[in-house]
């Protein structure tokens, strides 16, 4: 069996050498499986002894997959790699590796659990430092250790409860055994609740923070997108309403992933069918966004100030109402923050400020000019602060779940634990039913880490890997 990856040729399997060819100056590589008695035949078939630089063997269970493996290091060059692959293909019992097959073997042999496998897959796809850190912690077992501790509590609780059911009448059992089980489950349920009330930080970090640039037509939304991504991703003209569709780019903001969308300008007086569709899409993107960048034109604000004796906050409330996104504003009774979502207010075109009007505006407002790029570094700093709030900081002590699958299984587990606690609060609780609730909760945790699996779930997870991983 062999498969291609970026750097190696790795034959693996039971009673076989794993041969990994690290090519110099080329990204070609392959993975294959060679029986021990076939290794000499490879040299005779390949006929190029000078190409073999070194061979390294790893015995089970110390290899990545937990199987015997051998690595052949050869000189670089496409012809060299192709010659080796032709030689391997001529030998019996060889097949191309499926995507993720080696990691799946590691999982089957108990070298990795399912959360560690998912962490490894995320590590291969990580694009920013924060994503890399989160994936590396998960691949290293941070989530696995937490969930295994919870399984340990559940297993002992089930064992104690069943012991009480089976031996209460014939054996002398510890006083308060059932009460202790109930207390342990109460603590466990609280821990799971706390783990799930994380604002989905791990999931947001894994997929990237969805941000939308909102504002009236011609306030500089597309210009801001182009400045941030340092390329002309969006068309910019003096004509109002140039942007009709959603333009999306992915950025790395101080280690955090930002999926930024430029949208059509929002206004109430348009009769253009295409522009109306663009505005509808803009509102739809806004509804799904984690972060809003609200862009205001300095000239428009300055003109408004001449007509109204009000502060900048009053103008923001008026501006948002005119955009038709009043649901962005928080009810003063619900909290002290102005916005329901994470929001960055940007005052653009400040290069036109000749009377130092901007100096009087609150410091939390980002003042910049897309034309001169003054203030862009301030915007990046503010964006990073908001991204840190949304994504959190991955750590070994407080790991974050980052898969919808994790949350689904934990919700099922929590449901069974709550059923257990409800039955325990009754005057005459049925211990048999209570034990069944705990067994179902244990099954949900087993599905989470992979001790209880289905082929459908495994196929879904491992297909995310490239061939050879």
From TrEMBL:
GO CC, alphabetical: mitochondrion
A molecular function (GO) term:
GTPase activity
Asked whether the keyword Disulfide bond is assigned, the reply is no
Which GO BP terms sit in this record? tRNA methylation; tRNA wobble uridine modification
Q: Give a yes or no for keyword DNA repair in this entry.
A: no
Question: To which protein family does this belong?
Answer: Belongs to the TRAFAC class TrmE-Era-EngA-EngB-Septin-like GTPase superfamily. TrmE GTPase family.
- What is the name listed in the Swiss-Prot or TrEMBL entry for this protein? TrmE-type G domain-containing protein
Q: What is the lineage of its organism?
A: Eukaryota, Metazoa, Ecdysozoa, Arthropoda, Hexapoda
């Amino acid at each position: 069996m062999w498969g291609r990856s970026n750097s190696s040729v790795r034959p693996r399997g039971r009673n076989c050498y794993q041969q990994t060819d690290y090519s110099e100056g080329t990204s070609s590589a392959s993975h294959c499986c060679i029986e021990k008695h076939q290794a000499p035949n490879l040299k005779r078939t390949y006929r190029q002894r000078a190409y073999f630089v070194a061979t390294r063997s790893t015995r089970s269970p110390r290899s990545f997959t937990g199987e015997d493996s051998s690595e052949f290091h050869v000189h670089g060059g496409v012809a060299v790699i192709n010659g080796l692959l032709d030689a391997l293909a001529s030998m019996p019992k060889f097949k191309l590796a499926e995507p993720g097959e080696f990691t799946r073997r590691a999982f089957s042999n108990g070298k990795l659990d399912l959360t560690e496998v998912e962490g490894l897959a995320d590590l291969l796809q990580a694009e920013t430092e924060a994503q890399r850190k989160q994936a590396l912690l998960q691949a290293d077992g941070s989530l696995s250790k937490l969930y295994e501790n919870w399984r340990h509590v559940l297993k002992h609780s089930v064992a104690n409860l069943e012991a009480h059911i089976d031996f209460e009448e014939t054996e002398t059992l510890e006083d308060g055994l059932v009460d202790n089980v109930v207390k342990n489950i109460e603590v466990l349920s609280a821990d799971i609740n706390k783990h799930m009330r994380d604002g989905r930080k791990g999931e947001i970090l894994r997929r990237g923070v969805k941000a939308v640039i909102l504002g009236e037509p011609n306030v500089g939304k597309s210009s801001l997108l182009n400045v941030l991504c340092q390329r002309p991703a969006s068309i910019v003209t003096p004509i109002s309403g140039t942007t009709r569709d959603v333009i999306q780019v992915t950025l790395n903001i101080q280690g955090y992933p930002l999926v930024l969308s430029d949208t059509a300008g929002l206004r109430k007086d348009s009769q253009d069918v295409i522009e109306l569709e663009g505005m509808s899409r803009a509102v739809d993107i806004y509804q799904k966004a984690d972060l809003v960048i609200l862009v205001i034109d300095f000239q428009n604000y300055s003109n408004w100030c001449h007509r109204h004796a009000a502060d900048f906050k009053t103008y923001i409330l008026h501006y948002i109402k005119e955009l038709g996104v009043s649901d962005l504003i928080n009810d003063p009774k619900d909290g002290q923050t102005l916005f329901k979502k994470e929001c960055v207010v940007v005052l653009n075109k400040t290069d036109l400020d000749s009377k130092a009007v901007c100096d009087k505006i609150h410091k939390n407002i980002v003042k910049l000019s897309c034309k001169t790029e003054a203030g862009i570094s301030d915007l990046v700093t503010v964006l990073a602060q908001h991204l840190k709030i949304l994504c959190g900081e991955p750590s070994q002590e407080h790991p974050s779940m980052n898969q919808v699958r994790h949350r689904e299984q934990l919700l099922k587990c929590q449901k069974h634990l709550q059923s257990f606690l409800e039955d325990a609060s009754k005057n005459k609780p049925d211990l048999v039913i209570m034990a069944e609730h705990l067994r179902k909760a244990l099954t949900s945790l087993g599905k989470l880490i992979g001790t209880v699996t289905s082929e459908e779930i495994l196929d879904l997870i491992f297909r995310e890997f490239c061939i050879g991983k």
